[in-house]
């Protein structure tokens, strides 16, 4: 009989605690919290890209937000994700400066300082690269620093638990990067004309609004004229009625005259 699911979960949790048991709780909590903004921006960028793909395909009833707002937010969140990644890489390098200041494992001099400098040199140029290329470079930076931290731990330059701690955080961030790159690779070919499509949608919306504004203006002007000139309209109708009455009276008088002349002619004959 297979063990219940709860037993398997408890066993997995026990293995996890045993593997990461030496990591200080404070470091674990702060480190995991530090990955949340990176994960949040990654998921949000994917959601907005998917939203734009819906717009390009003309599926207007599945928008999370309007395509214009989605495009605007993408221009903000993509640099934000890259900038935050550059900050994390720089901090990971700065840790080695702190270990050198504390003389953990002895003074290592330039060898340990170089790790902090190289991480910063690698991290910050990524903010100038296109989004996908920046993610690739940062992926190389995270994995490269993890390899350097593994060796630093082996040489005694860092606490024994640091290698395990760095593995967990690097795994979370790099998995997020790979997932973003894979999904971007799937979305972008379907989204090749998204900008043009969004421009067309925006232009159509502007035309519709302009037409509606014009109709509203004409309607308001008609109402204003009707309010301002009710007397003129009434006078016009009265004048027409008077003209009809006068014409009818003249016709009757003319008819009477013709009848009278006819009678006179008959009498004379």
Automatic annotation (TrEMBL):
Membrane-spanning segments: 114-147, 167-187
Pfam families reported in the protein's UniProt record: DUF3429
Keywords: Membrane, Transmembrane, Transmembrane helix
Residue numbers spanned by region Disordered: 214-269
Record bears the keyword Transmembrane helix: yes
Organism annotation: Neolecta irregularis (strain DAH-3)
Protein name from the UniProt record: Transmembrane protein 69
Residue ranges, compositional bias (Basic and acidic residues): 214-242
